[in-house]
Design brief:
Blueprint lengths: L2 H12 L7 H4 L18 H17 L3 E2 L11 E3 L2 H35 L13 E3 L3 H35 L1 H33 L7 H8 L18 H25 L7 H32 L4 H5 L2 E3 H7 L1 H12 L16
Antiparallel strand pairs: 1-2, 3-4
Helix pairs in contact: 1-3, 4-9, 5-6, 6-8, 8-9, 11-12
The protein binds protoporphyrin IX containing FE.
Protoporphyrin IX containing FE binds next to helix 5, helix 6, helix 8, helix 9 and helix 10.
């Protein structure tokens, strides 16, 4: 029996129609359909029509479905060729995209660190005077989002690489227990992450609107290329604005596609579910690579930077070096009266 005949026989045996009704393809409940399932009741002409139509559907990328009498349209789908494309992406391309993005970023940062070292204060002198950079509410929001992101990143990478890298090392029992906990963590920590993300977007959006100072900052490569020193910047420089917008847009894309997956088949049919997974996995690995760079610069990479999110206060000399326009704005505010820190009541002394 050739493939065409096998396909037709399979369809006949299952009593399948040619395709799921249009309303079923759009995810609505189909009307119960009564169907003749007796193959002997069909004639050869009808058989070859069935066979051709099935092949056309497979080649045309639509799914092969039947008519069902239960209100679950998924049960009517016998073959969905896009599933093969998705599997190819999931098992073939995705590990490469993820591996290159994450390992590539780690290697690039390591190369930078070992050739240029830490970014230091220009005059290597701390002033001993402090300026408040982030108040308690901002720091709480940052760390809530950051901690959740790190757990989501590790458990997310486990979906892609766990089976390949960890399973052979720790064995099936340990891997299945770990993967189970990782999955729970991924599902449940997505909620505080989404809350933190939305608050973070709202709290910092005003200071992240691109402006003219960013063009100059980018032209000078953030002060890393050439000998011009650190270009002037407001509260966030162009590099930080890129991090902010990557987190904001990438995070929202992750949240939207993640919600589709948290409630399977509620908002999307099988094609929509696959689309959500393409988006979630690709944006996820790219954002992890961006955040590795951010974590590096916020800790090891730049002298004095961590304090901003640690205690909230940075040395005035550091602030003048990296955010000179912001310091001027803060000092002008302090000079013109008592200052109220953004997002809370804490004063933000400029000096
Ligand atoms: C252990 C990990 C992390 C460290 C050490 C860290 C450190 C920092 C520091 C020091 C700043 C302030 C920089 C400044 O003074 O302007 C900052 C800002 C910020 N962080 Fe993090 N961070 C971490 C993880 C994350 C994660 C996972 C996210 C997002 C999911 C995130 C999102 C942001 C954003 C949007 C800003 C403001 C824009 C910017 O400064 O780039 N951080 N972080």
């Amino acid at each position: 029996m050739n493939a065409r005949a096998a396909l037709a026989a399979l369809a006949m045996t299952l009593g399948l129609g040619l395709a799921a009704p249009a309303h079923a393809q759009h995810g609505q409940d189909p009307k119960p359909a009564v169907q003749t399932t007796n193959p002997s009741a069909r004639n050869p002409t009808a058989d070859s029509v069935t066979e051709d139509a099935l092949l056309r559907q497979l080649q045309g990328g639509s799914h092969i479905g039947g008519r069902i009498s239960i209100p679950d349209y998924k049960a009517s789908i016998l073959e969905q060729p896009q599933g093969r494309d998705y599997r190819q992406f999931r098992e073939g391309y995705l590990p490469w995209i993820g591996g290159i993005a994450v390992l590539g970023m780690i290697l690039a940062l390591a190369a930078f660190f070992f050739t240029k070292g830490r970014i230091r204060l220009e005059h290597s002198e701390e002033s001993g005077r402090k300026i408040l950079r982030f108040n308690a509410f901002e720091r709480f929001t940052h760390w809530l989002t950051a901690m959740c992101f790190i757990v989501l990143a590790i458990s997310g990478l486990n979906y892609i690489f766990g089976k390949r890298l960890l399973l052979p090392l720790i064995g099936a029992d340990a891997f299945s227990a770990w993967a189970q906990y990782a999955k729970f963590a991924h599902n449940y920590l997505s909620w505080p992450f989404m809350i933190g993300l939305v608050v973070m977007i709202l709290v910092w959006i005003r200071d992240n609107i691109p402006d003219r100072t960013d063009i100059n900052w980018i032209k000078q490569g953030g002060g890393l290329v050439g000998k011009g020193g650190h270009p002037p910047a407001r509260r966030f420089n162009a590099g930080q604005k890129m991090v902010y917008w990557s987190v904001a847009l990438g995070g929202l894309a992750l949240a939207a596609s993640g919600l589709v997956m948290l409630f399977p088949f509620s908002a999307a049919d099988i094609n929509g579910m696959q689309l959500a997974q393409y988006v979630h996995a690709t944006v996820g690995v790219l954002l992890i690579a961006v955040m590795i760079a951010h974590i590096y610069i916020g800790s090891l990479g730049m002298e004095g930077a961590y304090d901003a999110m640690g205690s909230g206060e940075v040395d005035l000399a550091w602030a003048k070096t990296h955010h000179s326009l912001w310091v001027e704005e803060q000092q002008a505010k302090t000079a013109s009266g008592p200052q109220i820190g953004r997002g809370g009541k804490s004063p933000a002394p400029a000096e």
